[in-house]
Amino acid sequence: MSPTPHRTQVAIVGAGPAGLMLSHLLAGVGIDSVAVDLRSRREIEETHRAGILEQDSVDLLVDTGVSDRVHRDGYRHDGIELAFGGGSHRIDFEGLVGAATQLYPQTDVFIDLADARARDGGDVRFEVTDVEVDDLVSTTPVLRFTDAAGERHEVRADFLVGADGSRSLCRRQVPEAERRQYFREYPFAWFGILVEAPMSAPELIYSHSPRGFALISQRTETLQRMYFQCDPATDVADWSDDRIWEELQARVGANGYTLKEGPITSRTVLPFRSFVQEPMHHGRLVLAGDAAHTVPPTGAKGLNLALADVRVLAEELERAVAAGDPAPLARYGERALARVWKAQHFSYWMTTMLHTLPEASPFDLRRQEGELAAVTGSTAGSTYLAEAYTGWPGQR
Ligand code: PHB
């Protein structure tokens, strides 16, 4: 049986936050799109990711009519705590750069976007299989997939977008001779938990200690998110609730904090990786979000970068569609990469400043404390951190 043919302007592989936000922004300027994802809507909703939105990300959700739930259900954070050397030091974002962040989990961003696309009649297909992209260097690239009911489809489009995450199929379609890949691996991971307990502190605590890094984050008044640095080969089954609490309390206790404990309802190990593929376009294919770049989670830049990508991409795709010409896609890549590399540096810097290397010597630990003291003890150092964490206000 030959596949059912379709025609659209932009075909999007990946219906996570990047793909859905792009499809929403394109609909706003009258450009139609089809978005597909291998996962079910439920599966994406149940994947826990980071929870911090930059001001620009909040504005994008609210100003484009996705949802104002971020203001109602999120928590505004005007700063973070950097804990090290037996004490804690606040970085005052509001005072230093006049900006704030919003605690609002990625799963909620996804739910808001999926609801907005459904409300506006967007064409989004979850649980597809056998995705193929082809004819990228032609005037009508093609997306093929089998839908959840088993029917095969062929979508001809003017442009194709790979917003298909860190294991992207689309980025592998760029011929090796035409792409550069930049990698960095780290010898540690995060053990992430969800806890039914009240908040232990009003803002996030990034805690350095000789036993390793810990991050105390939050979700709601009754549900908290916490992480501690671990070996990437860690098996969550080896960690009882008691053992987890002992480790977390020891790490933050070294800096004067005591955590409010409760039942642990979820535990996962999150890998660490820095990755960029350049350029972000090939023929009529463009990459967005994790498909083009991955950051380690320290500093929560992943989702923010994906949203920043698609905001620029929607503008350049509008030009490309109007002109029937892929040239604006190169401009998208240049604009997006400027921010991507700043965020790569920031995520790498936060990671290496706060985590303990497996072979760390007493010198390494004292040097990190010196670095943290230099950052927290100077307006220049704190301002750099505040500016990067809240998302480079100069670019707004
Ligand atoms: C989270 O709440 O999941 C979170 C917050 C800040 C980070 C990373 C993760 O830097």
Question: Shape from CA axes?
Answer: globular
Q: Number of DSSP helices?
A: 11
Q: Terminal Cα separation, in Å?
A: 51 Å
- How helical, in percent, are the residues? 25-40%
Count the E strands: 23
CATH homologous superfamily title of the largest domain:
FAD/NAD(P)-binding domain
CATH fold title of the largest domain:
FAD/NAD(P)-binding domain
Bound molecules: P-hydroxybenzoic acid
Largest beta-sheet details: 7 strands, mixed
Give the DSSP E fraction (strand runs of 2 or more residues): 25-35%
Question: Which architecture name of the largest domain does CATH use?
Answer: 3-Layer(bba) Sandwich
**Spatial extent as radius of gyration:** 22 Å
Instruction: Give the domain tally.
Output: 2
Low-confidence stretches: none
Structural class: alpha/beta
What does this structure look like?
The chain is an alpha/beta fold and 396 residues long. It folds into two domains: 4-71 and 102-182 and 274-350, FAD/NAD(P)-binding domain (3-Layer(bba) Sandwich), CATH 3.50.50; 186-272 and 353-390, D-Amino Acid Oxidase, Chain A, domain 2 (2-Layer Sandwich). Helices cover 35% and strands 27% of the residues. Strands 7-6-16-17-18-15-19 form a seven-stranded mixed β-sheet, with helices on both faces. Helix 1 runs parallel beside helix 8 and helix 8 packs antiparallel against helix 9.
